[in-house]
Amino acid sequence: MIPDLLDALVRPASYRRFAAEKAARTAAYIAFLSLIFVGSIGIAVKLRLAPLFDQTFSWLETSMPAITFANGTVTSAAPGPLRLEHPRTKDVALMIDTARKEPVTAQQMADAKVLAYLTSNALYLVRGQGQMETIDLSKSAAEKPVTVDANSYKDMERAFDWVFYPALMLFFFLSFAAALAFCGALYALAGMVMASAAGGSLGFAALFRIAVHAQTAGSLLYALDALMPVTIPYFQFVSIALSLTCLWLGVKAAASPAPAAPAEPPAPAA
Known about the structure:
The chain is of the alpha+beta class.
């Protein structure tokens, strides 16, 4: 696939070959570009998000008191009011007061500057300006007591690493592949106009295959943007411009007559 990638970038004449290739190879090329994008996303997540996740679980393991849910009641190793604030993201804070039974108001949560408030019978969550959600824990009595402690957060972290990251990468892979195919269909429609202007005639299937390869430069730009610590200015528009330019060059090359094969020299006289 790497030779196809290089040809798509620097050899417009190769689009004649792309237009005639089998559908399975075009699908494989879509998967190849999607893997490049997912690889860049994976590196970005590892460098920028993974440390935050690790710090969060470490904070939960060392700072969060053990909490037990039993018979519709919440108890804690620290029953009195305890405010916990994320060490890195100060806006992420919660209050634990399992000795409290009376309801919590949105104003009280705003005054405490917390996003969540856990009492003996309910969990209160902030939902936008002046709005909050109440989860009545008294109605969800477990058959046996459930305790959430430091070991629980370690188990959550392991499950997070084994489930969240693969699921995230799969989501980005499928989303990017679908976007390439969808945009390929749109670019193929534009390619019909370009083929007419180039004085040739190409079927929609051939134009779709050309359009998929024409998105190579734009896809690499998306992958580069994912790796960058700051967003590349107007990279979406630059990607579209690159794809349209490659599409025009590819359609023009594929629609033009194939170069005639060199004539064979006459056989020597007997």
